[in-house]
Specification:
Elements lengths: L3 E4 L9 E4 L2 H38 L6 H30 L6 H34 L1 H7 L2 H32 L15 H40 L14 H34 L5 H25 L1 H11 L15
Antiparallel strand pairs: 1-2
Helix pairs in contact: 1-2, 1-8, 1-9, 2-3, 2-5, 2-8, 3-4, 3-5, 3-6, 3-7, 6-7, 7-8, 8-9
């Protein structure tokens, strides 16, 4: 059954269409819309609260000031910005089917999404390199992975992504202006050419993803070799290669971050293939498909704190201390978490 056609902006000549369903269907649609607001609201709430807890924990507790956790902090900041800035207007756009926040904010928001997503992938790539050095060459790790080195890597990650976001903003603006005659008011579309889409995907997703996979395959091989060597020699201090054994904490961190990266790649791979196909072949599927893909990607931001809570004992202790207000006590920053 087809609905009656209404407009996003009733008095605008070039307004986009908005579907108003018949009364019988409207009752069901009302409960559906309320349910969607509730579901997406939970995702936004979990993303903001979970990542805010991660940020407070890493910043407050001195014991967590490690290179690995600095990358975790950077990743949590990205997810917090996605939850607090990107998701609320995208929720309204998804459910109401109209964009009510203006063309300028639409362009800024799409550019911000590209930037934050790029930061996430590059952060994970740097984490995989850091884990590779920690597991495969512990002596080199303690000599080179100082806090200032980690901060430089994070700064490079954010600077590159910010530059990419600015370039993307300019390209998107030019293409939107070029196609302004066919774009209606109330739409917020992503306009990017095939070559630009390929470059962005290549340097901000595909190459970092290959690095991540290669690093963790190498880590797995080396970890298995170390395990066999320790088992055969019954030594807890040295492997047959003469290097220090990898500590239990390092193995735990590596396993946890591998899960984080696996979840990220499982969420991101299908949307990336779809958007690349759309950019090259000009296929315009139903807008609901793109919205569903977007929220699949955004949901990943709510998953990372859940993974930390499941795997990290220190994170559970930190959450308990934060929620009980223990962080306001004197010298609480030196509390032992592990």
């Amino acid at each position: 059954m087809r609905g009656n056609i209404s407009l996003c902006y009733e008095h605008h000549l070039y307004s986009c269409q908005k579907i108003i369903y018949p009364l019988v269907m409207r009752v069901g649609m009302y409960f559906l819309i309320v349910g969607m607001y509730f579901l997406i609201g939970i995702i936004i709430f979990a993303t903001i609260v979970g990542n805010l807890l991660v940020i407070i924990a890493v910043i407050h507790f001195k014991q967590l000031h490690t290179p690995t956790n600095y990358f975790t902090l950077s990743l949590a900041v990205v997810d917090l910005l996605l939850g607090g800035v990107v998701m609320p207007p995208k929720m309204i756009h998804t459910i109401e089917t109209c964009w009510y926040f203006g063309t300028v904010f639409c362009k800024i928001l799409t550019s911000l999404i590209v930037m934050l997503c790029s930061v996430s992938v590059l952060n994970l790539a740097f984490i995989s390199v850091e884990r590779y050095i920690a597991v495969c060459n512990p002596l080199l790790y303690h000599r080179t992975m100082k806090p200032h080195v980690t901060l430089i890597m994070i700064a490079v990650c954010w600077s590159y992504s910010a530059a990419l976001g600015i370039i993307f903003l300019k390209q998107n603006t030019l293409r939107v202006e070029h196609n302004s005659e066919v774009l209606c008011k109330g739409a917020c579309v992503l306009e990017i050419g095939p070559m630009a889409a390929l470059i962005v995907s290549l340097f901000s997703l595909y190459i970092p993803s290959v690095i991540i996979v290669c690093m963790y395959v190498k880590i797995y091989i080396v970890a298995q070799r170390h395990s066999r060597s320790i088992h055969n020699t019954l030594s807890h201090l040295k492997t047959s290669r003469g290097q220090p054994t990898v500590s239990k904490a390092e193995r735990k961190a590596t396993k946890t971050l591998a899960v984080v990266m696996g979840v990220f790649l499982s969420f991101w791979t299908p949307p990336s293939i779809y958007t690349t196909y759309v950019a090259f072949y000009g296929y315009n599927g139903p807008p609901q498909v793109m919205q569903a893909i977007s929220w699949t990607v955004f949901s990943n931001s709510a998953c990372n704190p859940i993974v930390y809570a499941f795997f990290y004992c220190w994170f559970r202790k930190a959450i308990k201390a934060i929620l009980l207000g223990k962080v306001f006590r004197t010298n609480s920053s030196r509390m032992k978490l592990f």
